[in-house]
Amino acid sequence: MSSIILASKSPRRQELIANITDDFEIAAAEEPEVLPDGTSLEEAPVFLAAYKAGSIAKLNPDKTVIGADTVVILGDELMGKPKDEADAVRMLRALSGKVHTVITGCCIIKGTHRRTFSQTTSVEFYELSDREILDYIATGEPFDKAGAYGIQGRGMLLVKGIVGDYYNVMGLPVAKLERELRLL
């Protein structure tokens, strides 16, 4: 029986947390994620991470539970996972040639102790042609990723540069998370 629970179904997060420990299990929250009115774009990922971790921690009070949520922000729009192909096209066109922000919020709960933090990375896309966007969407990769792209997959071909933590863009700021775990 492991001592850490990752409250996420994301295969990328599972792969990344294995760099910290191989003593973990997966138990993702099934309730829908709803942001309270007035939640800022920057606060949203931390709120959602705490929501995920909290729902799993209630059922597992003797474990360390880690929740994470990643959002893509362009201007005043929070881009989640695309609903369909048209939504993915819309997002990728909006990101084309621009710098956007990726924020991953994390929450660690161990007994009565709770730590939350976020990590921010700036990502710049190349100017994308409609053909590039449609070819990328045809891979199927965009549909389970915030902002309709995965930097660790074919989406890397869209990225001109980043400033900040690469793994944060993948969905888990591993180095910061490992340091935060040490503080509990």
Describe this structure in words.
This protein has 184 residues and is α/β, with parallel strands linked by helices. 38% of the residues are buried. It is elongated and about 50 Å long. Helices cover 31% and strands 27% of the residues. The chain has a single domain, classed as Maf protein (Alpha-Beta Complex), CATH 3.90.950. The two termini are 20 Å apart. Helix 1 links the parallel strand 1 (4-6) and strand 2. Helix 3 (85-95) crosses helix 4. The model has no long low-confidence stretch (mean pLDDT 95).
Residues in helices, as a percent range: 25-40%
Which CATH architecture would you pick?
Alpha-Beta Complex
Roughly what is the average pLDDT, rounded to an integer?
95
Number of domains: 1
Low-confidence stretches: none
User: What is the top-level CATH class?
Assistant: Alpha Beta
Query: SS-based structural class?
Result: alpha/beta
Summarize the structure.
By secondary structure, the chain is an alpha/beta fold.
Core attributes:
single chain, 184 residues, alpha/beta, Maf protein, seven-stranded mixed β-sheet, 6 helices, 31% helix, elongated
Secondary structure layout plus pairing:
Layout: E1 4-6, H1 11-17, E2 24-26, H2 44-59, E3 64-74, E4 77-79, H3 85-95, E5 99-110, E6 113-125, H4 130-138, E7 159-163, H5 166-170, H6 174-182
Parallel strand pairs: 1-2, 1-3
Antiparallel strand pairs: 3-4, 3-5, 5-6, 6-7
Helix pairs in contact: 3-4
